[in-house]
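The material for today's practical consists of a large collection of protein records. An example says more than a description, so a record of this kind follows:
***
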Amino acid sequence: MTHLQEALTAHQSGRLAEALPLYERALAERPADPGALHFFGLLRHNLGQSAAGIELIKQSLELAPDNPHAWINLGNILLELGRHTHAKRAYQEACTAGADLAEAWYGLGMCLRHLGEPQNAIGPLTRSLELRPDNARCLHERAMAYRDARDFALAEADYRAAAALDPASPRVREGLGRLLYRLNRIDEAARVYREWRELEPDNPVPLYLGAAMSGDQTLTRAPTAYIAKSFDNFAAVYEDNMTGLGYKAPAHALAALRAAAQGGILGQILDAGCGTGFCGPLLRPLTQRLTGVDLSASMIDKARAKGCYDAFEVAELCAFMRAHPAEFDAVVSADTLNYFGALEEPFAGAAACLKPGGWLVFTLEKLAEGAPESYRVEPHGRYSHGADYVRGALRGAGLEPISLELKPLRRERGADVAGLIVTAVRSEGVGA
C-alpha cells in the first residue's frame, strides 16, 4: 500500500493525526500529485487549518482543473467560511466539469440561496434532484429557496417530501412548522410539532413550540434548554433573517438609552441576551466596558467576531444578573425578555445587578388591545405583554419606569410586530 493509500484510509477512518505525516510522505515522493494535494487540503481543513487547505486544493486544481470533486470540496470549504462569492465560482466550475454530479448542482443551489438569490437557486437544486431524486437534504434546501422566493405552496410540498424521506430531521420539521405558522395555519403547525415531539420526546424545541402553538397559557417562560438549542441551530442565519424582517429593536433600545443617559458615557453596560451582537456596535461608543451574556454559545461566537465586547459569558440571564450585584450602569435587553411571560424574576435580577441610578432598557412585544391577560405566549413561542403589567412588575422589583413607547420591532407575516420600548431606573423617578 502506498503512503497516499495509507493516508486516505486513515483520513476516511477519522484518524486525522495519523493521516497527516502519511500525506506529507506521499507529497515528498510526488509533489505534483493532484490527488494527494486535494485530499491533504481536505485534511488540513478538517484540522482547522482552512487557509492552508484551500491553497492545497487550488494547487491540485491547477494541475487537474477538470476534477469536479476538488471543485465541490473547495466550494464546501469556502461556503463554510462564509466566502459565498468565491464558493459560487467553485461550484460553477464543478457543474461544468461534472454536469452529471448531483452534489455539484446542490452546492451551487445552496450557495445561491445563501447569496440571497433564491429564485436562481431553484434551477440548480431541481437539476440535483433530477440526478438524485430521493435526496431529503436537497429537497429541504429547495423548500427554503421556494420559501424565500415566496412560492409557499411549492415550499410546503418540498418540506413534506423531505419529511417523508427523513422523518427524524429536526431542521425539516421545524422549517415546515414555521412555514405553516407563517401561513397562519396554526393548527397544522401545532400538529407538525406534536409529531416531531413523538419522534424526539427529549428535544425541547418541539416540546415547547408544540405547547405554544396549541395555546398552552400555563407556560410562564420559554425553557432555557429550548432557547439554547434553538438559537444554537439558528446562529448561522440569524442576522440575515432578522435583517430581512426589518429588525428595529436594537436601534430602538439604543435611542432609549441615549435619551436616558443624555449623551453621557457609562462605565459598564450589560447586553442582556446579546445573541450575535446586533447591539454591540451601537452600544460600544456609549460605554467603557461592554459585557454580553447569552444562553447560546454559537450566538456568542458570532458576537465575539464583531470585536465590540470586552467580556462574554454563556449563562442563564437571571442567574448571571443575580451573581453580579451592583456592577452595571445600564442593562440593555433587545428582543430577549419576550421569552419570559412572568417578568418578576428578570426584573429582580436587573435591579440586583444595576448600580443605584442605573438604567434598564428593554423591548417587548405588545399584547393585543383588550386582551384580559397580563401576558400570553404566542404561537411563535415568544410572549406579548400588557403595558400596565410591565409597569407594575418593574415597580415591584424596585425599578421606576420612566418611559414606555409604542414602536414596531420588525415585520412578521407581512405585518409590523407592535413593540414596547421601556426605560426604567433603579431609583425613584417620574412614573411613565
In short: The chain has a mean pLDDT of 93.
